[in-house]
């Protein structure tokens, strides 16, 4: 069990830290975290499936200022780990990931608003004294401490919580397990609804209707619908480029005609 806990720690630490080191490269998204976790845990298929489902759940979550809606890295890592080592149903694991993400979000907010502020006076002192080495040391030291604490949540959760989770799953009545599976199936729809609430307008409504028809009536898989969406985006982008070229050429022609008319007037009066 120590191996699985260590792997969970590494996944959270690397994915969270690498995302900030590379400038928001989206390495912390559930789709990537689920893939990496499943690969290290020995079941990449389960990791991809749970990561893709949680990507839909957390897609509409937006962190504004100091308010963090959920922490997807820890939630995805623990959900995939418990699904693999404790034989938890995938839909039930998705349902369990939501409170885990909320709990991890509280820890992250506490770290940002309380723990990291402890180092602020030392940073101010180094800045006043122009101590560049001290500033660099504090930068990397707090970086490691911050992500080490976040990754420790997954380590402790797997090390101390795998056995209780296994016993809990074994004692769950079939009716309750079916309810958890049904709730897990509905959560991606909630995630898409949150995203639509942010992006919805009348121009995008037609594409939502198109996607609904393709999936509900034509029974196309998600990959086919996504590929069709890429084609539509490329066609629209090309149309916008052509329109901008026409506008630019129209402006240039008007400017050229105005210059020629002015030149004719100058020649007439000269």
Automatic annotation (TrEMBL):
Q: Which PROSITE patterns match?
A: PTS_EIIC_TYPE_4 (PS51106)
- One Pfam family named in its UniProt record: EII-Sor
The UniProt keyword set, sorted, is: Cell membrane, Membrane, Phosphotransferase system, Sugar transport, Transmembrane, Transmembrane helix, Transport
Membrane topology, as annotated, equals:
Multi-pass membrane protein
| GO CC term, one of those recorded | plasma membrane
Q: Where in the cell is it found?
A: Cell membrane
The record lists the membrane-crossing segments as: 33-52, 64-86, 92-115, 136-160, 180-200, 207-237
Top-rank taxon, per record: Bacteria
Q: What is this protein called?
A: PTS mannose transporter subunit IIC
